[in-house]
Design brief:
This protein is α+β, with helices and mostly antiparallel strands. Strands 4-3-2-1-5 form a 5-stranded antiparallel sheet. α1 runs antiparallel to α4, α2 runs antiparallel to α3 and α3 runs antiparallel to α4. The protein is elongated. The N and C termini lie close together (about 10 Å). The mean pLDDT is about 90.
């Protein structure tokens, strides 16, 4: 049982780290001369990246939705980690980690919404040459990890002996 708890704790911390990197790092979309994320856009000019705010031509309502849900995913994942640690010491034996699973599922839904909106609404114009960066991939990886860990939290019971 201790190995399972340690394993789920490692997966939980890993998903929190991935969520933080995906939210903070400037690598959601790349071209040969530009990189962009959900906060700013950096353009390569004379060998130096010049970072500015994302242009107003970008749909701001969708951008703010991506920003908000990414931050909420980080908050819910952190809260579920705190709740998990608290439930380890206060939960009666034989009970499930339901509250931890709920918070982790909320983090999962939030990052799924953020990555889905970004996929559907940004960089979809014909002739737009570029590729998704590592932060975008980390966001989808964090989605999978938070979903798996939330399911495990719903199934997992505290050891009775």
């Amino acid at each position: 049982m201790l190995v399972v708890l340690a394993g789920i704790f490692v997966v939980h911390v890993l998903s929190l780290i991935l969520l933080l990197i995906a939210t903070i790092d400037n690598a959601w979309w790349f071209t040969n001369i530009m990189s962009t994320d959900i906060w700013r856009q950096c353009v390569l000019y004379n060998g130096v990246y010049n970072c500015t705010e994302i242009p107003q031509s970008t749909p701001q309502d969708y951008l703010q939705a991506v920003q908000a849900t990414s931050i909420l995913a980080c908050i819910f994942c952190f809260l579920s980690l705190i709740v998990f640690i608290a439930q380890l010491f206060t939960l009666p034996k034989g009970r499930r980690f339901t509250f931890t699973g709920i918070f982790q599922l909320l983090a999962c839904v939030c990052i799924m919404i953020a990555a889905s909106i970004y996929t559907n609404r940004f960089h979809t114009q014909p002739g737009n040459t570029g590729w998704y960066g590592h932060s975008f991939i980390l966001a989808w990886t964090a989605f999978a990890l938070t979903f798996i860990s939330s399911v495990i939290y719903f199934v997992l019971r505290k050891k009775t002996q």
